[in-house]
Amino acid sequence: MSKNLVKNRAPAPIQISAEQLLREAADRQPESAPIEPVVKVHDAEEYQAHLRERRQHYEDNIRYRRDDIANWIKYAKFEEENQELERARSVFERALEVVSSRSPDLWLRYVELELRNECINHARNILDRAVQLLPRVDRLWYKYAYVEEMVQDIPKCRAVFERWMQWLPDDNAWLSFARFETRCGNVVQAEKVLRQYVNAYPSARAFLRFAKWAEFEINNIALARTIYESALTELEPEEVQQARLFRQFASFEERQGEYERARVIYNHALKLLNLEQTAMIDEDISEQERQKREELYKAYLAFEKKHGNREGIERVLVTQRRVKYQKQLEDNPYDYDCWFDWIKLEESQLDNAAATRDVYEKAVAQVPPSSDNKDHWRRYIYLWIFYAVYEELANHDLDRAAEVYQTCLSLIPHKNFSFAKIWIYAAQLQIRRKDVTSARKLFGKAIGLCGKEKIFTEYIALELALGEIDRCRSIYNSYLKAMPHNCKAWSNFAELEKSVGETERCRALFELAISQPALDMPEVLWKAYIDFEIEEGEGKRARALYQRLLEKTNHVKVWISWAQFEATPVGLGMDESRTIMEKADDQLRKEQLSEERVLLLDAWRVLEQEHGDVDSVSKVEAKMPRRIKRKRMRQGEQGNDLGWEEYFDYQFPDDEGAGANNFKILEMAAKWKAAKANAADDDDSDLDSDDE
Fold first, then answer.
1. What pLDDT is stored for residue 164 in this prediction?
2. Helix 487-499 / helix 453-465 crossing angle, nearest 10 deg
3. Residues 587, 589, 594, CA angle at the centre, nearest 5°?
4. For the chain, what is the radius of gyration of the CA atoms?
5. What span, in angstroms and rounded, lies between the C-alpha atoms of 229 and 221?
6. What is the pTM of this model?
7. Phi/psi zone of residue 650: left (φ > 0), alpha (ψ -120 to 50 degrees), beta?
8. Spatial separation of the C-alpha atoms in residues 478 and 533, rounded to whole Å
9. Is 236 left (phi over 0), alpha (psi -120 to 50) or beta?
10. CA 544, CA 533: separation in Å to the nearest integer?
């Protein structure tokens, strides 16, 4: 009877949505992400399989999230890292076509790809397409102009700016154009550009930028004063009544020493803007303009403090600032920025050395509470540096400045961390005191307690300036004991020995360096060693170094460099270069490194064009591969066949027969698989006959 009961189909009092169910399911997932396996590639076949797998991964990503530009950029970067430049370009072109051709970031990443690979014309074409499509995006124009100036094509760079100016861009674009002309020495043309700018944008901002350029970049004081005066007479009243215009004009006259002119400008601003009374509380102006007017009034008071007779105003203002800083530091004595502001205030007062020193002493007494965290000390250390600089430059008391540095060094917990700059500044001060012994002691103590690379290099520079070669050698020994992996240190040491004519010492240093078990940049060290032997005219030794290097690495660039060396006057000639190239070609062919073989053959062809004849160039060109399109079966993640796909490969003349046979085998396999699929649809008797 229970089977016939009617179920209650009314809605539940608490409804659960599908979104809530999915959220709860996601929350119950394990928090730790799965660790991706480490892929190790042992040969070219596995490398190609790895590339296919990664490409399939990226294709799936862009298929699932087509609008995510980051996936396309990662895909293109992957192809670039594997030296597949055409594939990387294809990825970007697909992204521009499929996702969005109006994305400035995508265009810029495309351009950077071409620039990294030194394809300047490609980069130009891309930028030209980009600015035509997005003429209002300044980043594209900046990049375009930068590329043209980088390759020193001044007319094209100027043409880019002129095209850009036709769109009336913002202020920075005009200023960039003017600075470009200034760098090229065309000051008249730069001035013409800025005059077009102020005509296009008749505003206080434009005139001020024009005047600043005239003053600081071309040092034309008369032109700058004319621009300021024109701004006050030619602009609209609402533009003239801007506080920053008067402030910058008055500051300009003050910098030129024209104090009476500056005072007239300040007084005119006081009357026009009514700064002392209603301007500060005028509700018709914006908050930003109100702040600008307050700053103008403060600048006027500061001007009168420096060049007027307003002693009373000066005392009141300074006292107010001191009280403000004291209250702020009572709440937080470790606010080092506030200490800097207070110190700057005291230093600005004339004949105030005692008060300034007192503030410095109070500031450096606020030692950071933690001696384990270096970040807490970074700002504090500059209090001591400024204190020592003040004693040296303002008070000319070198002895007291040296005491400041010594006290600072005694406070730093060197067992936990140290600051190389303090040691270096203290030692340099001793040099200015003409106390070389104390400077050496400081550097020696710094090596023991700090041991940073900067200390070694500064100490070596000091001794080298003094001509103490033996001391430099001793420091280099300590340097290399502390950092035996530093190739730069080995190279500099060897360069020192070479500069003093110690060829055997230099050679011994290079031998010791390359024998180190771990080096940060071994390729730089080997190159320096080989270049040294070539400069010394030791072709036999350089040749032996190339042979030793090839025992460690079989990189194609080593073979190319060796062959190029043999073609030089120090080498054995082109016959030996050809022998090396042939040996390298055989080695790379055995290892099935197609990309490396192409690089080798390209370099070989260039070498023959420079030093060979027509026949030798023809022989090398006969070895050049052709780029062909092939087919292969695409495998899924489970090992199942997903269908045929096309890919590009290099086919060399010496393996064309094998490639054709392989392609025929693949064709036969495809036909056999199709016949097998058709036979599966027949009946049992037909299937048996087909199998026989």
1. 95
2. 10
3. 120
4. 37
5. 12
6. 0.48
7. beta
8. 26
9. beta
10. 10
Nearest to 346 by CA among 319, 383, 364, 373: 319
Largest CA distance in the chain: 121
- The secondary structure of 140-184 as a DSSP string is HHHHHHHHHHHTT-HHHHHHHHHHHHTT---HHHHHHHHHHHHHT
Residue 293: enclosing H or E segment and its boundaries? helix 287-307
d(CA 507, CA 500): 13
When the pLDDT of each residue in the chain is averaged and rounded to a whole number, the result is 83
Identify the pLDDT of residue 658: 46
CA distances (Å), 31 to each of 20, 23, 590, 670, in order?
19, 14, 48, 46
Neighbouring C-beta atoms of residue 418, cutoff 10 Å: 20
Report the alpha-carbon distance of residue 440 to residue 442 in Å, rounded: 5
Per-residue pLDDT at 682: 52
User: Helices marked H in 184-220 — which ranges?
Assistant: 187-200, 204-216
At 10-42, the pLDDT tens digits run 777 777 788 888 888 877 776 655 666 776 777
> Which amino acid makes up residue 184?
C
Phi and psi at 633, nearest 5°, equal -80, 125
Tokens of 397: 């008391």
Distance (Å, whole) CA 299 – CA 245: 13
DSSP state of 682: S
Per the structure block, which two tokens stand in for 665? 């085998």
End-to-end distance of the chain based on CA atoms, in angstroms? Answer: 64
- The pLDDT tens digits for 242-288 are 888 999 999 999 999 998 899 889 888 878 887 644 333 444 677 88
Report whether pLDDT(51) > 60.
Answer: yes
Q: What is the DSSP string of 228-287?
A: HHHHHHHS-HHHHT-HHHHHHHHHHHHHTT-HHHHHHHHHHHHHHHTTTTGGGG-TTS-H
Q: Which of the listed ranges 425-429, 615-619, 630-634 does the model predict with the highest average pLDDT?
A: 425-429
Domain ranges of the chain: 558-624, 632-691
